[in-house]
Amino acid sequence: MTVETHSSKYPVITIDGPSGSGKGTVCFKLAKALNYQLLDSGALYRIVGLQAYQAGLLSNVDKAGNPILDEEKLAILTQSLDIQFTANEADNLIEIYVNGERVESKIRTETVGGYASQVAVFPAVREALLDLQQRMANHSGLVADGRDMGTVVFPNADVKVYLTASAEARAKRRVAQLQLAGEKADYEQILAEIVARDERDENRQASPSKPAPDALVLDSSELDAQVVYEKIKSYCEQQGICF
Question: What end-to-end distance do the CA atoms of the chain give, in Å?
Fold first, then answer.
Protein backbone atom coordinates (compact mmCIF):
# COMPACT_ATOMS: atom_id res chain seq x y z
CA MET A 1 0.00 0.00 0.00
CA THR A 2 1.26 3.45 -0.90
CA VAL A 3 1.17 5.80 2.07
CA GLU A 4 -0.24 9.15 0.98
CA THR A 5 0.36 12.30 2.93
CA HIS A 6 -2.63 14.53 3.34
CA SER A 7 -2.70 18.19 4.24
CA SER A 8 -5.84 20.03 5.30
CA LYS A 9 -6.45 23.66 6.14
CA TYR A 10 -8.64 22.41 8.98
CA PRO A 11 -7.34 20.85 12.23
CA VAL A 12 -7.25 17.06 12.44
CA ILE A 13 -7.12 15.07 15.68
CA THR A 14 -6.45 11.33 15.44
CA ILE A 15 -7.29 8.88 18.22
CA ASP A 16 -5.97 5.39 17.47
CA GLY A 17 -6.04 2.21 19.52
CA PRO A 18 -7.78 -1.15 19.96
CA SER A 19 -11.53 -1.67 20.31
CA GLY A 20 -12.73 -1.15 23.88
CA SER A 21 -10.00 1.30 24.85
CA GLY A 22 -12.50 4.15 25.05
CA LYS A 23 -11.80 5.82 21.70
CA GLY A 24 -15.45 6.19 20.71
CA THR A 25 -16.49 8.01 23.87
CA VAL A 26 -13.59 10.47 23.90
CA CYS A 27 -13.86 11.15 20.16
CA PHE A 28 -17.55 11.98 20.45
CA LYS A 29 -16.87 14.34 23.36
CA LEU A 30 -14.02 16.05 21.53
CA ALA A 31 -16.02 16.45 18.31
CA LYS A 32 -18.97 17.85 20.22
CA ALA A 33 -16.84 20.27 22.27
CA LEU A 34 -14.97 21.52 19.17
CA ASN A 35 -17.88 21.33 16.71
CA TYR A 36 -15.74 19.10 14.47
CA GLN A 37 -16.81 16.26 12.22
CA LEU A 38 -16.39 12.76 13.64
CA LEU A 39 -14.91 9.94 11.59
CA ASP A 40 -15.30 6.44 13.04
CA SER A 41 -13.01 4.40 10.80
CA GLY A 42 -13.67 1.28 12.85
CA ALA A 43 -17.29 1.58 11.77
CA LEU A 44 -16.15 1.71 8.14
CA TYR A 45 -14.39 -1.63 8.43
CA ARG A 46 -17.30 -3.09 10.37
CA ILE A 47 -19.60 -1.90 7.60
CA VAL A 48 -17.44 -3.53 4.94
CA GLY A 49 -17.19 -6.69 7.04
CA LEU A 50 -20.97 -6.94 7.47
CA GLN A 51 -21.65 -6.15 3.81
CA ALA A 52 -19.06 -8.76 2.77
CA TYR A 53 -20.71 -11.35 5.01
CA GLN A 54 -24.17 -10.54 3.68
CA ALA A 55 -22.83 -10.81 0.11
CA GLY A 56 -21.43 -14.27 0.86
CA LEU A 57 -17.81 -13.23 0.50
CA LEU A 58 -16.79 -14.61 3.91
CA SER A 59 -18.36 -18.04 3.50
CA ASN A 60 -15.39 -19.90 1.96
CA VAL A 61 -12.83 -21.38 4.36
CA ASP A 62 -9.76 -23.58 4.06
CA LYS A 63 -9.22 -26.93 5.79
CA ALA A 64 -8.07 -25.15 8.97
CA GLY A 65 -11.25 -23.10 9.06
CA ASN A 66 -9.57 -19.86 8.02
CA PRO A 67 -11.49 -17.62 5.59
CA ILE A 68 -10.55 -17.57 1.92
CA LEU A 69 -11.33 -14.05 0.73
CA ASP A 70 -11.41 -12.52 -2.75
CA GLU A 71 -9.59 -9.20 -2.40
CA GLU A 72 -10.81 -7.83 -5.74
CA LYS A 73 -14.47 -8.53 -4.95
CA LEU A 74 -14.04 -6.98 -1.50
CA ALA A 75 -12.56 -3.82 -3.05
CA ILE A 76 -15.40 -3.55 -5.58
CA LEU A 77 -17.96 -3.97 -2.80
CA THR A 78 -16.22 -1.32 -0.69
CA GLN A 79 -16.17 1.20 -3.53
CA SER A 80 -19.91 0.74 -4.06
CA LEU A 81 -20.92 1.77 -0.53
CA ASP A 82 -22.55 5.12 0.28
CA ILE A 83 -21.66 5.80 3.94
CA GLN A 84 -22.90 8.74 6.00
CA PHE A 85 -22.22 9.71 9.65
CA THR A 86 -24.87 11.90 11.33
CA ALA A 87 -24.49 13.27 14.86
CA ASN A 88 -27.53 12.75 17.09
CA GLU A 89 -26.80 15.06 20.02
CA ALA A 90 -30.17 14.36 21.66
CA ASP A 91 -29.22 10.70 22.18
CA ASN A 92 -25.47 11.37 22.38
CA LEU A 93 -24.63 9.01 19.54
CA ILE A 94 -23.55 8.90 15.91
CA GLU A 95 -26.11 7.52 13.47
CA ILE A 96 -24.54 5.58 10.62
CA TYR A 97 -26.24 5.07 7.27
CA VAL A 98 -25.12 2.67 4.52
CA ASN A 99 -26.90 3.02 1.20
CA GLY A 100 -29.68 4.81 3.07
CA GLU A 101 -30.08 2.14 5.79
CA ARG A 102 -29.32 2.93 9.42
CA VAL A 103 -26.86 0.29 10.64
CA GLU A 104 -25.03 1.35 13.82
CA SER A 105 -26.80 -1.25 15.99
CA LYS A 106 -26.06 -4.02 13.48
CA ILE A 107 -22.32 -3.37 13.22
CA ARG A 108 -21.48 -3.13 16.95
CA THR A 109 -21.56 -6.87 17.70
CA GLU A 110 -18.47 -8.95 18.48
CA THR A 111 -19.23 -11.12 15.44
CA VAL A 112 -19.18 -8.17 13.06
CA GLY A 113 -16.01 -6.94 14.77
CA GLY A 114 -14.45 -10.22 13.69
CA TYR A 115 -15.66 -9.70 10.11
CA ALA A 116 -14.09 -6.22 10.17
CA SER A 117 -10.74 -7.58 11.28
CA GLN A 118 -10.82 -10.16 8.47
CA VAL A 119 -11.43 -7.67 5.66
CA ALA A 120 -9.10 -5.00 7.08
CA VAL A 121 -6.01 -7.08 6.30
CA PHE A 122 -6.38 -6.42 2.57
CA PRO A 123 -4.56 -3.41 1.08
CA ALA A 124 -7.21 -3.04 -1.66
CA VAL A 125 -9.95 -2.60 0.93
CA ARG A 126 -7.92 -0.07 2.88
CA GLU A 127 -7.08 1.85 -0.30
CA ALA A 128 -10.75 1.91 -1.29
CA LEU A 129 -11.57 3.66 2.00
CA LEU A 130 -8.50 5.91 2.20
CA ASP A 131 -9.71 8.67 -0.13
CA LEU A 132 -13.16 8.77 1.50
CA GLN A 133 -11.59 9.30 4.92
CA GLN A 134 -9.10 11.93 3.79
CA ARG A 135 -11.76 13.96 1.97
CA MET A 136 -13.67 14.36 5.23
CA ALA A 137 -10.94 16.73 6.43
CA ASN A 138 -11.54 19.13 3.54
CA HIS A 139 -14.71 20.65 4.97
CA SER A 140 -14.15 21.28 8.69
CA GLY A 141 -12.09 20.22 11.68
CA LEU A 142 -12.07 16.46 12.15
CA VAL A 143 -11.72 13.96 15.00
CA ALA A 144 -10.70 10.62 13.49
CA ASP A 145 -11.19 7.41 15.49
CA GLY A 146 -9.37 4.31 14.29
CA ARG A 147 -6.27 2.15 14.26
CA ASP A 148 -4.09 3.83 11.63
CA MET A 149 -5.48 7.35 11.50
CA GLY A 150 -2.23 8.94 12.72
CA THR A 151 0.13 6.59 10.87
CA VAL A 152 -1.48 6.21 7.42
CA VAL A 153 -4.65 8.21 6.84
CA PHE A 154 -3.61 11.51 8.46
CA PRO A 155 0.17 11.34 8.98
CA ASN A 156 0.25 15.15 9.20
CA ALA A 157 -2.51 15.41 11.81
CA ASP A 158 -2.28 18.31 14.27
CA VAL A 159 -2.77 16.00 17.28
CA LYS A 160 -2.14 12.25 17.51
CA VAL A 161 -3.17 10.04 20.43
CA TYR A 162 -2.86 6.27 20.84
CA LEU A 163 -5.37 5.10 23.45
CA THR A 164 -4.91 1.57 24.71
CA ALA A 165 -6.04 -0.73 27.54
CA SER A 166 -5.38 -4.32 28.58
CA ALA A 167 -7.38 -7.06 26.86
CA GLU A 168 -8.87 -7.96 30.25
CA ALA A 169 -10.08 -4.41 30.89
CA ARG A 170 -11.60 -4.19 27.43
CA ALA A 171 -13.34 -7.55 27.83
CA LYS A 172 -14.86 -6.43 31.15
CA ARG A 173 -16.11 -3.23 29.53
CA ARG A 174 -17.70 -5.18 26.69
CA VAL A 175 -19.40 -7.57 29.10
CA ALA A 176 -20.79 -4.64 31.09
CA GLN A 177 -21.99 -3.00 27.87
CA LEU A 178 -23.79 -6.12 26.71
CA GLN A 179 -25.33 -6.78 30.11
CA LEU A 180 -26.56 -3.20 30.28
CA ALA A 181 -28.29 -3.79 26.97
CA GLY A 182 -29.95 -6.90 28.40
CA GLU A 183 -27.82 -9.33 26.40
CA LYS A 184 -25.90 -12.39 27.56
CA ALA A 185 -22.13 -12.06 27.73
CA ASP A 186 -19.44 -14.72 28.15
CA TYR A 187 -16.31 -13.02 29.51
CA GLU A 188 -13.89 -15.79 28.49
CA GLN A 189 -15.26 -15.95 24.95
CA ILE A 190 -15.14 -12.17 24.55
CA LEU A 191 -11.60 -12.05 25.95
CA ALA A 192 -10.47 -14.74 23.51
CA GLU A 193 -12.04 -12.85 20.59
CA ILE A 194 -10.31 -9.61 21.65
CA VAL A 195 -6.91 -11.32 21.97
CA ALA A 196 -7.33 -12.94 18.54
CA ARG A 197 -8.37 -9.64 16.96
CA ASP A 198 -5.42 -7.83 18.55
CA GLU A 199 -3.08 -10.45 17.11
CA ARG A 200 -4.48 -9.93 13.60
CA ASP A 201 -4.55 -6.14 13.84
CA GLU A 202 -1.05 -5.75 15.27
CA ASN A 203 0.66 -8.21 12.92
CA ARG A 204 -1.07 -7.63 9.59
CA GLN A 205 1.14 -6.47 6.73
CA ALA A 206 -1.24 -3.69 5.68
CA SER A 207 -1.17 -0.81 8.19
CA PRO A 208 -0.73 -2.71 11.47
CA SER A 209 -2.24 -1.12 14.55
CA LYS A 210 0.53 0.77 16.35
CA PRO A 211 1.19 4.25 17.77
CA ALA A 212 2.55 6.95 15.48
CA PRO A 213 6.08 7.95 16.58
CA ASP A 214 4.79 11.40 17.58
CA ALA A 215 1.59 10.23 19.30
CA LEU A 216 0.67 10.60 22.96
CA VAL A 217 0.26 7.03 24.26
CA LEU A 218 -2.34 6.73 27.03
CA ASP A 219 -3.38 3.55 28.87
CA SER A 220 -7.02 3.75 29.96
CA SER A 221 -7.16 0.40 31.79
CA GLU A 222 -7.58 2.03 35.20
CA LEU A 223 -9.11 5.36 34.07
CA ASP A 224 -12.74 6.34 33.66
CA ALA A 225 -13.98 8.05 30.51
CA GLN A 226 -14.03 11.58 31.93
CA VAL A 227 -10.42 11.37 33.13
CA VAL A 228 -9.34 10.09 29.71
CA TYR A 229 -11.20 12.96 28.03
CA GLU A 230 -9.63 15.59 30.28
CA LYS A 231 -6.12 14.24 29.70
CA ILE A 232 -6.57 14.24 25.93
CA LYS A 233 -8.28 17.64 25.94
CA SER A 234 -5.33 19.07 27.87
CA TYR A 235 -2.89 17.54 25.39
CA CYS A 236 -4.87 18.99 22.45
CA GLU A 237 -4.68 22.43 24.05
CA GLN A 238 -0.91 22.03 24.43
CA GLN A 239 -0.75 21.36 20.68
CA GLY A 240 -2.67 24.56 19.87
CA ILE A 241 -6.26 23.29 19.59
CA CYS A 242 -8.63 25.90 21.05
CA PHE A 243 -11.75 24.72 22.86
Answer: 36
